[in-house]
């Protein structure tokens, strides 16, 4: 009966959510206002809600409580909710996702992901759709020289992890901030995000000294720190559109021990944007739909509006075109998104080739959907 109460509470909570802010933040605020929920209650209700969102468009004909139970079967191998509420489903609990979907009478061909026609042809549609039915892992990138200290701290704390070299994976719920000094010793960074500078590394085995780089959409600074760790001699400039973003960025860089030459507020998409300096490397991690990361925010499967794809693509073209004007001759321009949509990726590459006079050296997806990670796109250009 207690599990039925959790199910009912989750149905009521989802009926109040409108998609205006990320569900994790909304739910945290909801629990803050309704203190009757203990830690176990919050954990079980959150799981019911997030698994529900992972269904996307699947089982749309069913009422919300039934869909939640279907999500529990698909997202878990041994769900207490299935055992109590749907004991007749127990026989398939350990079967593959495809077998479970077949048992429930659903096909992934036209369900789960709502924008199949927008996907890049480079994406394995079946694997990508199925990936939403599992929680992505937490990935750490160990900073150079900190490998031994980080491994020792995690082992002492009894944290199970796997991985080689500087990239470690562990359960998404691991509270690493209580164990290691984040940003100083390691950065929370998805496996694909850790790899996204590889095209640049392959083209630039050694840079002239001093070489300059501009991270024109620096956001929280994860790739700024990665750029520093990959090319320690780079003189890095970082910008973003709001001072509040840069305030957090500066604090993070300070924790990481990364000294930026300059940080400044700029709307690079504006036709009035201008700079006096040119750079050897420009990193353009453009604002995007984030569709390659929706495994971490599965509510987007239900609430992301299709028309925003075109909005983002237009913004990306303006930012990338404006930023590319400040590339040194024979310099390198790296365009990055965490999107799987063709319009935000391959179409922007074609646009830059046509309008910015850039020569594309490589373009690729770093696919995380078969690794319990995110999927990112990167295209490397140089001046022709």
What does this structure look like?
The protein has 15 helices and ten strands. It is of the alpha/beta class and 384 residues long. It folds into three domains: 2-112; 138-188, no CATH class; 191-383, Rossmann fold. Strands 6-5-4-7-8-10-9 form a seven-stranded mixed sheet, with helices on both faces. It has a three-stranded antiparallel sheet with strand order 2-1-3, with no helix packed on it. Helix 11 links the parallel strand 4 and strand 5 (235-240). Helix 1 (2-16) packs across helix 3 (39-54), helix 4 packs antiparallel against helix 6 and helix 14 (307-324) packs parallel to helix 15 (346-355).
How do the strands and helices of this protein lay out in sequence?
Blueprint: H1 2-16, H2 23-33, H3 39-54, H4 64-75, H5 80-85, H6 97-104, H7 125-131, E1 138-142, H8 147-156, E2 167-170, E3 186-188, H9 191-195, H10 198-203, E4 212-215, H11 222-230, E5 235-240, H12 243-256, E6 262-265, E7 279-285, H13 300-303, H14 307-324, E8 327-337, H15 346-355, E9 358-366, E10 376-383
Parallel strand pairs: 4-5, 4-7, 5-6, 7-8
Antiparallel strand pairs: 1-2, 1-3, 8-10, 9-10
Helix pairs in contact: 1-3, 3-4, 4-6, 14-15
């Amino acid at each position: 009966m207690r599990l039925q109460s959790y199910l009912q509470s989750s149905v009521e909570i989802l009926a109040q959510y409108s998609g205006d802010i990320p569900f994790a933040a909304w739910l945290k605020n909801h629990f803050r206002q309704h203190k009757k929920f203990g830690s176990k209650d919050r954990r079980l209700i959150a799981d019911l809600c997030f698994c529900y969102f992972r269904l996307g468009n699947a089982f749309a004909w069913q009422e919300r409580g039934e869909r939640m139970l279907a999500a529990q079967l698909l997202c878990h191998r041994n769900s207490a909710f299935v055992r109590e509420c749907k004991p007749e489903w127990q026989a398939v609990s350990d079967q593959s996702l495809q077998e479970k979907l077949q048992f429930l009478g659903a096909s992934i061909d036209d369900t789960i992901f709502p924008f199949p026609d927008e996907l890049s042809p480079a994406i394995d549609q079946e694997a990508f759709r199925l990936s939403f039915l599992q929680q992505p892992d937490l990935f750490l990138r160990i900073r150079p020289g900190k490998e031994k200290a980080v491994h020792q701290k995690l082992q002492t704390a009894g944290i199970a992890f796997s991985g080689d070299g500087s990239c470690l994976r562990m359960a998404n719920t691991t509270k690493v901030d209580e164990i290691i000094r984040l940003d100083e010793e390691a950065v929370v960074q998805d496996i694909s995000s850790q790899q996204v500078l590889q095209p640049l590394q392959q083209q630039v085995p050694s840079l002239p000294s001093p070489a300059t780089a501009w991270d024109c959409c620096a956001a929280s600074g994860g790739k700024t720190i990665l750029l520093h760790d990959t090319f320690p001699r780079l003189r890095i400039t970082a910008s973003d559109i709001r001072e509040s973003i840069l305030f957090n960025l500066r604090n993070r860089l300070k924790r990481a021990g990364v000294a930026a030459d300059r940080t400044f507020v700029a709307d690079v998409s504006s036709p009035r944007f201008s700079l006096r300096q040119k750079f050897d490397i420009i990193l353009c991690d453009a604002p995007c739909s984030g569709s390659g990361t929706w495994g971490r925010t599965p509510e987007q499967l239900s609430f992301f509006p299709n028309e925003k794809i075109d909005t983002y693509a237009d913004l990306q073209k303006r930012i990338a075109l404006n930023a590319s004007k400040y590339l040194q001759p024979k310099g390198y321009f790296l365009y990055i998104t965490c999107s799987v949509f063709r319009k935000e990726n391959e179409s922007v590459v074609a646009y830059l080739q046509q309008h910015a006079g850039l020569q594309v050296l490589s373009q690729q997806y770093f696919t995380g959907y078969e690794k319990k990670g995110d999927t990112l796109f990167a295209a490397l250009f140089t001046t022709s």
